[in-house]
């Protein structure tokens, strides 16, 4: 059975963007494109309306490119349960108030039982210190937070993550 992967907005942004002059960003773009070509078929990929809304913002040409990529993915619904969990994450101070969108991605992936949340957001999402605290909080609430990682961490024979 394929693992379920929630694609966060930063992934599709790196995937659809023109090559950056910034070396770190350009490397992440290449890693993301390579992962998309070589690894995505090992997984069932999902996005949310929240991702679509974020991807649709900004430069119209770039937004169209991002939305074309996302159009191929099934969606997970924005539920009251996910909104409540995201709000609790912020209200409890586990993420700062300006990271409500990040809390929403994490809540959506958690509430919809994703195995992985794939992101390049290492400040609030792919951050071991923050995730440890949020993971303990969510387990108390009866949820299991998915593995949160970047594309370079989800490679090789990644279709068999184990349970």
Account of the protein in words:
The chain has seven helices and five strands; from the N terminus they run E-H-H-E-H-H-E-H-H-E-H-E. By secondary structure, it is α/β, with parallel strands linked by helices. It has a single domain, classed as 5'-nuclease (Rossmann fold, 3-Layer(aba) Sandwich), CATH 3.40.50. A five-stranded parallel sheet has the order 3-2-1-4-5. Helix 1 packs across helix 4 and helix 5 packs across helix 6. The radius of gyration is 15 Å and the shape is globular. The termini are close together. The mean pLDDT is 92.
Strand content: 5-15%
Q: What's the level 1 CATH class? A: Alpha Beta
Q: What can be said about the biggest beta sheet?
A: 5 strands, parallel
Q: How does the overall form come out from the CA principal axes? A: globular
Rg result: 15 Å
CATH architecture level-2 label: 3-Layer(aba) Sandwich
Count of DSSP-assigned helices: 7
Estimated helix fraction: 40-55%
Name given to the CATH homologous superfamily: 5'-nuclease
Number of strands: 5
Structural class: alpha/beta
Poorly predicted ranges (pLDDT <50, ≥5 residues)?
A: none
The number of domains: 1
Lateral arrangement of strands in the main beta sheet: 3-2-1-4-5
SSE string, helices as H and strands as E: EHHEHHEHHEHE
Q: Find the CATH topology.
A: Rossmann fold
First-to-last CA distance: 11 Å
Can you give the mean pLDDT?
92
Structural descriptors:
163 residues; 7 helices; alpha/beta; Rossmann fold; 5-stranded parallel sheet; single chain
């Amino acid at each position: 059975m394929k693992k379920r992967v929630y694609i966060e907005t930063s992934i599709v942004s790196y995937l659809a963007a023109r090559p950056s002059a910034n070396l770190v960003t350009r490397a992440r773009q290449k890693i993301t494109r390579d992962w998309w070509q070589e690894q995505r078929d090992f997984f069932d990929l999902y996005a949310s309306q929240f991702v679509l809304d974020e991807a649709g913002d900004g430069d119209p040409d770039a937004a169209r490119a991002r939305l074309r990529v996302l159009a191929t993915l099934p969606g997970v619904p924005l539920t009251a349960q996910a909104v409540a969990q995201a709000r609790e994450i912020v209200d409890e101070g586990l993420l700062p108030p300006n990271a409500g969108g990040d809390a929403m991605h994490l809540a959506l992936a958690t509430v919809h039982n994703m195995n992985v949340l794939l992101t390049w957001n290492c400040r609030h999402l792919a951050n071991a210190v923050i995730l440890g605290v949020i993971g303990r909080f969510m387990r108390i609430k009866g949820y299991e937070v998915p593995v949160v990682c970047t594309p370079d961490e989800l490679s090789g024979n990644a279709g068999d993550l184990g349970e």
